[in-house]
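Example record

One chain of 416 residues, shown exactly as stored in the release files.
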Amino acid sequence: MTANMTTPEVVKKKGFMAKVKSMGPGAIITASFIGPGTVTTATRAGASFGFAILWAVVFSIIATIVLQEMSARLGIVSKKGLGEAIHDQFQQPLLKFASIWLVIISIGVGCAAYISGDLMGTSLGISTLTSIPANVVSPFIGVAILFLGLSGSYKLIEKVMITLVVIMSITFITTMIVVKPDIGAVFAGAFVPSIPTGSMILIIALIGTTVVPYNFFIHSSMVQERWTQVSDLKEARWDTIISISVGGLITAAVLITAGSTMYGMEVNSVADLSIQLEPLFGSWAKLFICIGIFAAGFSSAIASPLGAAVAIGSVLKWEGGMKNKKFKIVFASVIVIGIITSAIGFSPMDVLLMAQALNGILLPVVAIYLFIVMNNKKLLGNNRNSMLMNIIGAIVILVAVFLGGYSLLDAIQTYL
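Predicted C-alpha cells for this chain:
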C-alpha cells in the first residue's frame, strides 16, 4: 500500500526534472529573437501606444511556438534539418536548384544584414556606460563571437545562450515588476486587439522581430544534438513552449515598462529607458538596463552567423555540423561582414529597421517551405502536420505574407 502511494510522487518528480533537463534548443531560439531590434521595437511600442498593441506580442509568441514546434518535430522525426528537407523535397532539377539557391542567397544575405544591427545594438549597452562610440566597441564584440563560433561546440553555445536568457529575464522582468503597471490595462492590451492610428508599422515590427526565418533552420538542426527518438517529441515540445513563452514575457516586460514610464515620449534609443528608471533604481538604472541590452544583442549576434551557417550547411547537406570547416567559413564570413559594416558607423536604428524589413520579406518564403515539408507523409509519416496544425500554420503564413508585403512597400517608400 505504501509503495503504491509513493509511486505517483516519484513519477511527478521525474516528469518535472525531465522538463527542466529538456531546456536547451528552445532557449537558443529565445536568445536569438530577443535582440536589439526586439528590445528597441518593444520600447518604442510602449512609449508610443502604452499597452494598446501588447496583443501583437501575444500573437507573435503563439505563431513562433507553432512554427518552431514544426521545425523541432521535423528534426527529431526525419533526422534532417530544414535545409536538407528542402533539398530532398523537390525531384524536378530546376525546382530543386531554385529552392536550394533561394535559401542560400536569402538566408545568407539576411543574416549578413542582421549581424551588423546586432553588433551595433550589443555595443549600445557598453557605449552608453563608457561613452566609447558604438562603432568602436562592436568589432571587439564581433571578434569574441567569432572565437565562440569557431570552437565548434554546440554545448558551449547552448550554455552561453541560456545564461544570456537568464540575465535578460532577471533584468527586464524585474524592471517591469518594480514599475508597478496597471494590471487591468496590461490584460486589456494583451487580449483585446486594437490598432491605434500610426501603430501598424510597430505591430509588424513586433511580430517580425519575433518570428525569425533562420531560427527554423537552427531549431531543426539543434534538436538533433539533444534528442534522437520520436518518443522525445514531448520533451522537445515542452522546451519549445516554455522557452519561447519566456522570450515573449521578456518582450512584453520591455513594452510594459516603457508604457508605464515613457508613454508619450519620443524614443531615439532603448538606452533612453534608463532615464525613466532613475527614480526607481537611482544610479543603478543605467547599469541595469545596459546589461539587459548587452545580453539581448550578444545572444542575437551569435544567432545570426549560426543561422546562416546552419541553413546553408543543411541545404547543401554538409556533414559534421558545427565542426565542419565549410560551416566555420560561413560563420566567420558573416561575422567579418558584421565587424566591417558595424565599424563604418551606420546608425544602429537605421540598420535595425532595414534588417526588420528584410526579415518581413524572407519570413513568408521560408514559412511556406516549412509548411510544404511538414505535410510530406513519406518524410514524417504519422508525425506530419495534423489538420489543426495545417489550419493554424496557414493562418500564420497568411499573416506572414501580409507582413512581408507591407514591409516591402514600407521599405521602398522609406528609401526612395
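Notes: The chain has 18 helices and no strands.
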